[in-house]
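Here is one chain, start to finish.
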Amino acid sequence: MLDQVMGGPSARDDAFMKDALGLASRALFVSNPNPRVGCILVSRDGTILGQGSTQRAGGPHAEVMALRDALGAGRDVRGATAYVTLEPCSHQGRTGPCCDALIEAGIGKVVASLTDPNPLVGGQGFARLAAAGVDVLVGPGSTESRELNIGFFSRMARGIPWVRMKAAMSLDGATALANGESQWITSPAARVDGQAWRARACGVLTGIGTVLEDDPLLNVRDVATPRQPHLVIVDSRLQTPPEAKLWQVTDRSILIYTAQAENERAALLQARGAQVIALPDSNGKVDLAAMLRDLGQRGINELHVEAGHKLNGSLIREGLVDELLLYIAPKLMGDGARGLARWGPLQALSEALTLEFKTIEPVGADLRIVARIAGRACLG
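Its structure:
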């Protein structure tokens, strides 16, 4: 039967789910656009029989990896408990249903963190397990699993990615000097940490201003990753230079959103390998909300924003940012320096954007602050 944790999980359930969540975190840079899931198979006497995490899209899911691990070691999983950080899938995609694999293996109980927000699953995996006589317990590790998969939950619940805006700034809130100089405000340790946040995203978003001023690569460096996130550029007038450094990164797709109709410039950028998508708003700019919907349809879970103060301001003004990732250096940069975003001016403090601190941690000589827009703490 399906038990929605009426009496709460046991200490054993919590301990093994913590381990399963550790396995899920191994898929952080790997599984997109699929969720990050871990699975541990445990015998009645508490022996770990097999474990695994979700592989690259099209590859085995966590449950199958755990079953293979047990089989490879010659361990019998009949009657065992499967601790899995998300509901086992019940639909046929590029891989078969994981709930069927668990049933066929003779698993006796499934302890899962969350119901899958994917409408193709959404409780059906649990129902199929229960119908086959498998006991199901849902709840342990739910907060951690949702946070690990915040982008997947966002895409399934809202149809758009989870938008995380990153910035490195001084203690007085400056992200660049008046002349545009910004390298480097923060320490090497903070910059490497920022690369890890890039790596976990499905896409990195920037604006044409940053492309023209900084000529960045905007790829993942200094952090081992099996895949590069998509590069997404907001370029209303198709000014992206065909000779920009960003084209040097060949193992990613480039999406350029514009307000221009098809023209020779679009053809030139498409010949360089970009996909050019025209989504104009009524002001001749890119419709940013429509862009997020399009990115959601393309399987983008987490969108990592590294842009200038104009695009940052537009995203904040339109209510499209979910979370801020800020690296604060112990420096003061004085009058005239640029801030995080150009938006406002506000007429009253009550109009200020309210955030909730999620984490505040030292990274090298700097502080890393993750602050979430108030009211967006939970999805699904």
